[in-house]
User: Fold this.
Amino acid sequence: MARDVRGRAGARPRPPIQKVALAVSAVFVLIGVLGFVPGFTTHYGDLRFAGHHSEAKLIGLFQVSILHNLLHLLFGLVGLVLARRIAGARLFLAGGGAAYLGLWLYGFGIDRKTAANFVPFNDADNWLHLFLGFGMLALGLLLNNEVGTGGRPDTPFDRP
Assistant:
């Protein structure tokens, strides 16, 4: 282990799963912030707290509301905290992926012109949720805990 100038042990490099979880979390925080920025969010004047009546769209594609943006921010911040530990990073990626697959099913199954579309979702959101769900789930289950190793995935749980 590397030592600093005072002879103390330096910080160990992060395993790939933690790096990926940190990156994914940071993207969610960024998306949450950009949802409140006119220009990145088209029809910003039509941004509502919640519901399908919010006509604001992030980068002109993804229907957003204040609640939707706050959920992105919260999810990203939770991910940043969880990514500090290997088990937390795995939970964030795999659990978050499973949650996004659930959101995809929910968005696919609801009538988007009703109160059930309270977040709100549109077709672009649904496709993104499907992609995020499978991607995060796969990363959470398959990424290796070891620093600098590629190769085959290990178990989805931390080693003792």
